[in-house]
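Researcher: Before we compare anything, I want clean individual predictions. No alignment, no superposition, just each chain on its own. First chain goes here; please echo the sequence and then give the structure tokens.
Model: Echoing the first chain and its structure:
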Amino acid sequence: MPVYINSTGSVSAQKTFDSALFLEEIVRHNETVLNVIAPNYKEYIPPAAARRMAEGIKMSTVAAKTAMTEAAMKEDEIDAIIVGTGLGCIGDSEKFVSDIINNDEQFLTPTRFIQSSHNTVAGQIALGIGCKGHNFTYVHSAISFESALLDAKMQLDIGEASHILVGGVDELVDHHVDTHRLIGHIKQEPVETMSLLESGTEGAVFSEGAHFFTLSNEKRDSCNAELVAVKTYNTLAEDQVAEKTASFLSENGMDPDAIDVIVLGYNGDVEFDGYYDALREGLFENTAQTYFKHLSGEYDTVSGFGFWLANKILKRQSIPQAVRLNMGDAKSPETILIYNQYRGENHSFTLLRKC
């Protein structure tokens, strides 16, 4: 059965929380770590509840509500909630451990411990909308979001559910940033947003974000795209990428020429961006090429931002100038391929088609 992506919701380092906008106004950064541009949470969450929520929960609540509103989806229509996350609510985990140390293991409140688990986001959204159906969280590093997509697609394919809320979320916390900076995964010097690929240095610009989508076997007026296929690999060599890409497309009855736009996960790390060069300079040399991490930053579920971008391109039938890698012709894009990897591992291919 076809799997339709009926709506999107996003909170990121750009003003994506406003679903009426599509990167017309780019927020430029010159940092090594980016925080989200947060909406006014009071418009979505009661202030008393928001004060007790971790940043990841607040971002996800806004993104999920935005997606449901765009699809005119009632709360009782959601059959399942599936979330991908690399680190979960790691901020509350750090605070709880700090409280243990600072209070000499005494007088501890359980709130931060309860809210520190990886499945907190999916659980909080379910409580908020009263969803008692399938509730699952995937923690698969940089393919956590794709794992959630695969689960949702399989459930819709076999008729286990009709409407599924799928999301990916990760938040920034100090200890996580300090650790990755120490081991060289974060760039040492600030990089201006639009100059990321010219940085010539190792490491990435780290960030955070939440991206949610309503997937359904029922096409609604708000439909963005059809999810055709998702495939992941744990490890690939650079010289295998083109072969696996062609094989993935062949499995879905396509060849590289059938792809109108390719979305690549370049993050400016000179040690690993060669994986994308293998496609950019090979199979898709004459295809419209785009990238997104110069706008969103890098985190485990950042492919959710790439997925949001691809959906918007298909719905709006236009490519924002800020994400173009070349001037390949794609005036009326019908098919988009998303390819992402992180530090040579957790490769993912996601194929979308105009609905």
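Researcher: Okay. Second chain, same rules.
Model: Second chain and its structure:
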Amino acid sequence: MSLEPIDAETALELYLADKENELSEASIKGHKYRLGHFVRWCDEKEIENLNTLTGRQLHRYRLWRREDGDLNKVSEKTQMDTLRVFIRWLESIDGVEQDLSQKVLSPSITPDENSRDVMLDSDSASKVLAHLEKYKYASIQHVAIALMWHTMMRVGGVHALDIDDYDPDDQCVKVRHRPESGTPIKNQGKGERMVALSDQLCDVLDDWLAEKRPSVTDEYGREPLLASREGRTNKTTLRAYVYRWTRPCTYSAECPHDRDLGECSALERDTAYRCPSSVSPHAIRRGSITHSLNSDMPDKVVSDRANVSQRVIEQHYDRRTEREKMEQRREYLSDL
């Protein structure tokens, strides 16, 4: 078989054009997003012709994407399954070696694994925020984690906020989808909403803006709410804050894993994710949703505030036990 040279970016454009009449618009966008990371990797590795792509390189991409995207097992499977479809399509146009798609490996998951249990419980969240309140008050780390916990927002939503999206008088933030200027959000236009804030969180935001936030704009001339001297704080940095400050050793004097703190591999800022107790921003979101449900916030209110359907809340986010749900229902029973 004679292969015809093709680069990753061109291949993706042809693939998406070919699939336009076969896949829904939402599916096209999903494939474009997931395969965009593969194009980025090829560019970084200077792979200019996919004819030379090998199974070993595809495995290296899998490891790179897992680390780069902070992917859980389910997300990794979705990404690699999409890549396999793409590679299979490339086989059909003589862009890669035949049967290369069979070398695209992805994890096997059980039905139970499709709904992860990892979350930041309310007790740990209180300790993390109390520590930040005392030692890092109104710092960007404090503001970011407090916003994630109190609003149930995804990391992308927090990242997308501008100063003008915060209304201190009405005590709320407006989450907006602005892909043209670098801040798309999950669910796009349907994810836009206004989120009410507590008095305490507004105090933290006011002090951040008045005392700590650097006076900068991003590359689009917008004033990001969460900013560093370089501009808008990126999502990778926001995730790193969460991993760093949810390690128990940062807010208590003990390690629940009996590790020697002088030798622990998770002690450095860039390796905080190695701590078994540290969590991702999504675990904060899951914990906050569960905490709100446990606090008797109606399901519909949680659904609207967190921008997630009640069905998805039940399947992926609600970590109340059956007994906890029963006891909550009991409170609505009238005396017989």
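Researcher: What stands out in the second chain?
Model: The two ends are 80 Å apart (CA to CA). Additionally, The longest strand covers residues 172-175.
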